[in-house]
Specification:
The protein is an alpha/beta fold. It has two domains: 126 residues, P-loop containing nucleotide triphosphate hydrolases (Rossmann fold, 3-Layer(aba) Sandwich); 88 residues, Helicase, Ruva Protein, domain 3, CATH 1.10.8.60. It contains nine helices and seven strands.
Length: 246
C-alpha cells in the first residue's frame, strides 16, 4: 500500500492530486480500443497522411494522443487558432490537434488535412468526440474531408479493460484485496479509466488507514464518497452486469 496520508481530521481524503499516467506501458488494451491503437501505431503509413481519433469522454483519446506525440515529437496546435499556427509548421513535421468536435478553426483544419493529404510531408492526428461527419462544422469542403478521412474509433471502456486497469493499479500499490472486490467494483463504478485510477487511490488510502485489505464494505464506502452526497452508494449493479454478482 502507498504511504500517503489517508485522512484529514478523520475524513476521507478525496482531493487526491493524481498526475495522469500517459505512458505506453500503462495503456490497457481490450476489444474497446485495440483497433484504434493499431491504426494510431500504423503512423507514418496512414493512407491520407492524417488520422481522426474519436470516441466518447474518458475512452482513451488523450492517452493515445500522448503516446503518439511521445513517439513522433509532434507539435500541438490550438484547434481555435489553426490558421495562424499552421504557418509555423514545416515540411516533415507531425502535428496533434485535440478536441476538434466544437469551436474548431474550420478553415485551418481544412488546410491542415489538405497539407497532410498532399506532398507537404506533414502528418496530423486529429481527435474529438462523436462521429466526425456529425461535428458542427459548416465549411462544405471540410465536411467532405471529414467524411472521407481515415478514422480510428475508441469505444467506452469494457469490463475486460477496466479489470486490467484495476488489477494493475492495485498491484502497483501493493494493496491487498478481499474476495469479490473487483467484481463488486466493476458492477458499480463509472466506466472510465480516470475514475478507476481515482477510485483505487481512495481505496488504498482507506485500507492503509484501517490497516487491512480492501473489502466489499470498504468498496461500498468509497463508491458512496466518490458519487457525492446527493447520490450516495448504489447497491444496484449497472444494468446488464447483474450476473457478475452471482
Amino acid at each position: 500500500m502507498s504511504s500517503a496520508p489517508a485522512s484529514r481530521g478523520g475524513q476521507l481524503a478525496l482531493d487526491l492530486a493524481l498526475e495522469p499516467d500517459y505512458r505506453a506501458a500503462s495503456f490497457a488494451v481490450s476489444e474497446a480500443n485495440a483497433a484504434a491503437l493499431a491504426l494510431v501505431n500504423r503512423w507514418p503509413r496512414w493512407r491520407q497522411g492524417h488520422l481522426l481519433l474519436v470516441g466518447p469522454a474518458a475512452s482513451g483519446k488523450t492517452h493515445l494522443a500522448h503516446m503518439w506525440t511521445e513517439r513522433t515529437r509532434a507539435r500541438r496546435l490550438d484547434p481555435r487558432r489553426l490558421s495562424a499556427e499552421l504557418r509555423g509548421v514545416g515540411r516533415g513535421e507531425a502535428v496533434l490537434v485535440e478536441d476538434c468536435q466544437a469551436g474548431v478553426d474550420e478553415t485551418g483544419l481544412f488546410h491542415l488535412l489538405n497539407r497532410a493529404a498532399g506532398d507537404a510531408g506533414v502528418t496530423a492526428l486529429v481527435t474529438g468526440r462523436g462521429v466526425p461527419a456529425e461535428w458542427p462544422v459548416s465549411l462544405p469542403d471540410l465536411v467532405s474531408r471529414l467524411k472521407a478521412a481515415e478514422t480510428a474509433v475508441l469505444h467506452e471502456p469494457d469490463d475486460a479493460l477496466l479489470r486490467q486497469v484495476l488489477e494493475k493499479l492495485f498491484r502497483d500499490r501493493r494493496t491487498p484485496l478481499g474476495a469479490g472486490v473487483l467484481e463488486y467494483l466493476l458492477m458499480r463504478m463509472e466506466r472510465s479509466v480516470d475514475y478507476a485510477r481515482h477510485l483505487v487511490a481512495v481505496l488504498d488510502n482507506m485500507a492503509l488507514a484501517r490497516k487491512g485489505p480492501v473489502t466489499r464494505a470498504l468498496a461500498r464506502e468509497a463508491l458512496a464518497a466518490l458519487s457525492g452526497p446527493e447520490r450516495g452508494a448504489s447497491e444496484t449493479p449497472t444494468p446488464g452486469r447483474e450476473h457478475l454478482d452471482e
